[in-house]
Specification:
Blueprint lengths: L4 H11 L3 H15 L6 E5 L2 E5 L1 H23 L4 H4 L17 H11 L6 H17 L1 H10 L9
Antiparallel strand pairs: 1-2
Length: about 150
């Protein structure tokens, strides 16, 4: 479960992140709380872009800084719902999905595509894995024949 206390743990690691081993541990903690893209080339509606190791490290650092800013506000007594504004938009959350089979399949049609935002892709693929547990016949078929293929609707 994701809670505000985990952002405080990143702050503690950031404050003590001396040397490459300390930074590695901090970045591992950041990756557990924020959606991050691995090094690679990604497609969008407008073309392609590259995530290299340098830009990835920069993104992880920005996430760590936002976690530190959030934790600083919490320690000053600012409520979580106000302090949360300082967090980068890519932090992981628990969510609930409801809808008809058709509407859920439509959401999966749109969000399992390679040009969908990484956090939307991750949520959609996680939802599909859970749906296959609940309805293995239908969603097993969906996974094999439609997921990630841009075939809209059933």
């Amino acid at each position: 479960r994701y809670t505000g206390k985990q952002f405080g743990e990143i702050t503690n690691l950031y404050d003590g992140a001396g040397g490459s081993a300390g930074r590695k541990k901090m970045y591992e903690a950041v990756e557990k709380l924020f959606y991050t893209q691995p090094v690679g080339t990604y497609s969008t509606r407008d073309g392609f872009y590259e995530v290299n190791e340098s830009s990835r490290r920069s993104i992880l650092h920005q996430y760590a800084m936002s976690a530190c800013a959030y934790n600083d506000r919490i320690e000053r007594g600012i409520p979580e719902e106000s302090a949360r504004r300082l967090l980068s938009a890519g932090y992981r959350q628990n969510f609930c999905l409801s809808g008809t089979v058709r509407s859920i399949c439509h959401m999966l049609d749109q969000r399992t595509l390679a040009d969908s935002q990484i956090e939307c892709q991750t949520a959609a693929w996680m939802a599909l894995e859970e749906l296959k547990l609940w309805e293995p016949t239908l969603f097993g078929w969906y996974d094999k024949t439609k997921a990630g293929r841009n075939n809209l609707a059933l």
